[in-house]
Amino acid sequence: MTTGARNWAGNVVFSAEHVEAPTTAERLREVVATAGKAHVLGAGHSFSRIADTTGTLITLRDLPASVEVSADRRSARVGAGLRLAEVATLLDAEGLALHNLPSLPHITVAGAVATATHGSGDRNGSLASAVRSLDLITADGGTTTLARGDDRFDGAVVSFGSLGVVTSVDLDVVPAFEVEQRVHEGLPFEVLAERSAELFAQAYSISVFTDWRESFSPWVKRRTSDAPADLGWTGAREATGGRHPIPGASPEFCTRQHGEPGPWHARLPHFRAEFTPSAGDELQSEYAVAREHTEGALRALKELGPVISPVLLVSEIRTVDADPYWLSPFQGRASTAFHFTWVPDAHAVRPVLTLIERALAPYSVRPHWGKLHETAPADRYEHWSRFAALRDGLDPGGKFRNEVVDHYFPG
Ligand SMILES: Cc1cc2nc3c(=O)[nH]c(=O)nc-3n(C[C@H](O)[C@H](O)[C@H](O)COP(=O)(O)OP(=O)(O)OC[C@H]3O[C@@H](n4cnc5c(N)ncnc54)[C@H](O)[C@@H]3O)c2cc1C
Q1: Best mutation site among 107, 371, 407 for ligand 1 pocket (most ligand atoms within 8 Å of CB)
Q2: Contact 383/326 with Cβ under 8 angstroms?
Q3: Model pLDDT for residues 100-112, shown as the tens digit of each residue
Q4: Which one is the CATH code of 178-367: 3.30.70.360, 3.40.50.720, 3.30.70.2520, 3.40.50.20?
Q5: pTM higher than the cut 0.85
Q6: Fold of the 67-176 domain
């Protein structure tokens, strides 16, 4: 008998028999030690079955919240179950910031790190790239800390809950900064395809939203201390009114546009933290290719436009810096990521994913683990077998294995 719990989008009904929400660290260790099978659920914002288990689904939402800034103010130790919006508010009050944020700040710190969740920016790595160390409860209820420099660390940061329960992470922080956001429209596809490197270099964080037909719309987030962005040469023009990433949708819940300066956490996400959607009427996928393949991937996707657009709400193109994590989509390569927000119809969307994955295969494409995908071939992750060995060492009885882990790391 399952609990019937679902993810945010409603497309995953978890197979768990129990949900546990411990209120103390001691109780959490006890829950882990006595569970047959277990997995942690963050905010449930993944679209894949990556958080699923047939045993005990553990949520950290009732554990005491904590953010402790280090004496040198270069790092902060953060409770794993905190939402990014909560962490941002606490850090900002200390005059500090995370280097970047994804489009929505409602997800948990550990959930974001576990899937290499990212925003945009040529020199901005995913949130996982800010992790200095993490505290982990392993299958027997024991605790261990893995830190940068430890030979298991690069395998443990992006590991989608398959090594144990992360209870806190120590994150790099930077002095708080101000950002202004301007939405542009009418970017010609050929300019994007031929000069994407110059375009994305124009500001701290740039996303290009598209329908893969005619509309290419750069959202430019500039640190106010940086030089002004110049998109004049691209042919794109600044939008005259507020915009939502999905053309025609109300911009009411979007972060401020038109160049009005604001704190980092109120401009880097596209959506305002005060707006909390309880359930999503959409599905998502995302694929990363090495930066040098951006033009090839853009042209391949544009060609698929006629099959993509009937099931698409909107697509977003971002740049992400390289990281060293064995299972990260960005491992060893500065990347361009192609995101798709789909209509909530998995049967209609899945065949399109197969076509996209086929079209991007020549570019050694890697999917976002938290979003829908059909395949993630092992040969695209050079440390794949090292990860399986790490997993077997930390979780010999397979407590944290689930359908996704078993599918990709059989045996
Ligand atoms: C509207 C929306 C917008 C999004 N925007 C972006 C975006 O801009 N960029 C991007 O990259 N992604 C984006 N995503 C995807 C999302 O960020 C990821 O799927 C992320 O992993 C979700 O975090 P979560 O807290 O909901 O974790 P869950 O989805 O609940 O879990 C994700 C994984 O983390 C593991 N996990 C969670 N907590 C722990 C823990 N304490 N210890 C060990 N493992 C743990 C889970 O077991 C699971 O494997 C978006 C999703 C939605 C719904």
Answers
A1: 107
A2: yes
A3: 999 888 999 999 9
A4: 3.30.70.2520
A5: yes
A6: 3.30.465
